[in-house]
Amino acid sequence: MDIITIHKDTLPNYEEKIKIFYEEHLHLDDEIRYILEGNGYFDVRDKDDKWIRIAMEKGDMITLPAGIYHRFTLDESNYVKAMRLFAGEPVWTAYNRPADHFPARAQYQQFLSQMVQ
């Protein structure tokens, strides 16, 4: 695990990082976040490819499965401190949409189609 603080006074290249976090992307591993302080939003796509906004605040935890398109943004406070949990070495590589050619994306879509039936 590690801790990330997203605020203009603490995160190097803050403006650039905020833009990267908000770009729609996926990861090849699960993404697990626990909010320690502040607030933000994870946006994920539903089965019809429409956005669902998930408000996150202190004490909330989210797990985003590998292969799900998502993005993150702060609320008007422009501050969040989060614990990032992972197995092994962290791999924060984000693959911007379209990234449908990855096996993780196909596995997520298969899982989603089984849940919808």
Automatic annotation (TrEMBL):
Keyword Iron (UniProt): yes
Question: Single Gene Ontology BP term?
Answer: methionine biosynthetic process
Q: Which UniProt keywords apply?
A: Amino-acid biosynthesis, Cytoplasm, Dioxygenase, Iron, Metal-binding, Methionine biosynthesis, Nickel, Nucleus, Oxidoreductase
Name the needed cofactors: Fe(2+)
Asked whether the UniProt record includes Phosphoprotein among its keywords, one would answer no
Domain of life of the organism in this record? Answer: Eukaryota
**Pfam families according to UniProt:** ARD
What InterPro entries does the record point to?
ARD, RmlC-like_jellyroll, RmlC_Cupin_sf
Q: Which reaction does it catalyse?
A: 1,2-dihydroxy-5-(methylsulfanyl)pent-1-en-3-one + O2 = 4-methylsulfanyl-2-oxobutanoate + formate + 2 H(+)
EC number of the protein: 1.13.11.54
According to the UniProt record, what class of enzyme is this?
oxidoreductase
Q: What is this protein called?
A: acireductone dioxygenase (Fe(2+)-requiring)
